[in-house]
Task: inverse folding
C-alpha cells in the first residue's frame, strides 16, 4: 500500500554542473505531473514523465529541477539591458528632484537593480550531464517512493484498526436486531388493537390477515439484509487492504457502500442502542473515507 503523499530530494553533479531534483506528491484523483525545469532540460521532459509513471500511478506531483553551472569550468554569456538601465537612471533623477536631494547617482546604484545584468548559462549539454540528470531523477523518485510506502504502512495500520472497530459495531447491531424486531412487533400490535373494535369476528375481520400484515411490516423494517451486506463489504475491504498492491479507488467505492448500508439501518432503527451504534459507525466510516483519499 502506498500513500499519495511523499517527498524525495537528490543531488547529482558532473565536473561542469550540479543538479538538484526535489519531488513532492499530494492527493489527486488521477496522475497529474507538473515539471519545473531549466530551459536546458526542456527536451527531456517527456522521457522524465515516462520514468515518473513507473513509480507513481495516481496523485498530483510537482517536480523541481535546478541546474547550476560551475562558473570556473563553463563560460556563459553576460547580457546587459541598457534600455532598462536608462529607465532606472531617469527614475532615480526624478526621485532626487522630487525629494530635493543633491546626492549623486552612482554607477553601482544602477547595476544593482534587477535584470540590468544577467548571466545566461550555456544551453548545450553533453551526454555526461544527460546521464547525470536521469540518474538523479530516478534516485529522487526512489526516495519519494520509499516515503510513500512508509506512509502507506501507517495508513494500513489505521485502516485495519477502524475496520475491526466497525466489525465489532456491526456485531453489536446484529445482536440488537431481535430486540428491535420485538419492539416493532409490539408497536404495530398496539396500534392495531387501539384502532380495532373489541369484537373483531363480529366485524368480519380476519385475525390471520392482521397477523400477515404485521409480518409484512416487520420484514420491511428488518435490518438483516443490511447487516449481511455490511459484513460482506467489510470483508472485501479487509481483503483489498491486505493485497500487495492496493487501489485507493476500490477502497473509496467500499466506503460509499458501507455508509449506504449504515444509513439505511439508521433510518429503519427505532432502538436507541442501534441508533448509537449507527452514529459511531458513521464516524468510523468518515475516518476511513479520509484515509482512503490518500491511498494511491
Result:
Amino acid at each position: 500500500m502506498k500513500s499519495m503523499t511523499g517527498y524525495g530530494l537528490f543531488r547529482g553533479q558532473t565536473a561542469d554542473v550540479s543538479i538538484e531534483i526535489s519531488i513532492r506528491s499530494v492527493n489527486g484523483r488521477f496522475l497529474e505531473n507538473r515539471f519545473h525545469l531549466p530551459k536546458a532540460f526542456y527536451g527531456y521532459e517527456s522521457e522524465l514523465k515516462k520514468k515518473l509513471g513507473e513509480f507513481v500511478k495516481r496523485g498530483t506531483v510537482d517536480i523541481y529541477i535546478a541546474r547550476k553551472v560551475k562558473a570556473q569550468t563553463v563560460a556563459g554569456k553576460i547580457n546587459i539591458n541598457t534600455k532598462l538601465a536608462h529607465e532606472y537612471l531617469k527614475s532615480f533623477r526624478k526621485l532626487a528632484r522630487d525629494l530635493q536631494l543633491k546626492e549623486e547617482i552612482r554607477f553601482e546604484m544602477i547595476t544593482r537593480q534587477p535584470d540590468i545584468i544577467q548571466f545566461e548559462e550555456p544551453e548545450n549539454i553533453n551526454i555526461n550531464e544527460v546521464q547525470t540528470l536521469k540518474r538523479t531523477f530516478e534516485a529522487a523518485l526512489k526516495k519519494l517512493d520509499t516515503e510513500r510506502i512508509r506512509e502507506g504502512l501507517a495508513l494500513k495500520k489505521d485502516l485495519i484498526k477502524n475496520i475491526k472497530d466497525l466489525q465489532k459495531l456491526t456485531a453489536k447491531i446484529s445482536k440488537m436486531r431481535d430486540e428491535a424486531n420485538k419492539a416493532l412487533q409490539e408497536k404495530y400490535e398496539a396500534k392495531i388493537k387501539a384502532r380495532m373494535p373489541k369484537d373483531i369476528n363480529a366485524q368480519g375481520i380476519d385475525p390471520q390477515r392482521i397477523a400477515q400484515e404485521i409480518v409484512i411490516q416487520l420484514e420491511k423494517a428488518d435490518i438483516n439484509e443490511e447487516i449481511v451486506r455490511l459484513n460482506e463489504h467489510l470483508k472485501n475491504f479487509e481483503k483489498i487492504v491486505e493485497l500487495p498492491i492496493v487501489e485507493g479507488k476500490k477502497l473509496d467505492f467500499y466506503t460509499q457502500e458501507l455508509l449506504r448500508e449504515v444509513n439505511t439501518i439508521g433510518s429503519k432503527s427505532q432502538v436507541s442502542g442501534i441508533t448509537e451504534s449507527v452514529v459511531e459507525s458513521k464516524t468510523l466510516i468518515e475516518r476511513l473515507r479520509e484515509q482512503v483519499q490518500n491511498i494511491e
In short: The radius of gyration is 35 Å.
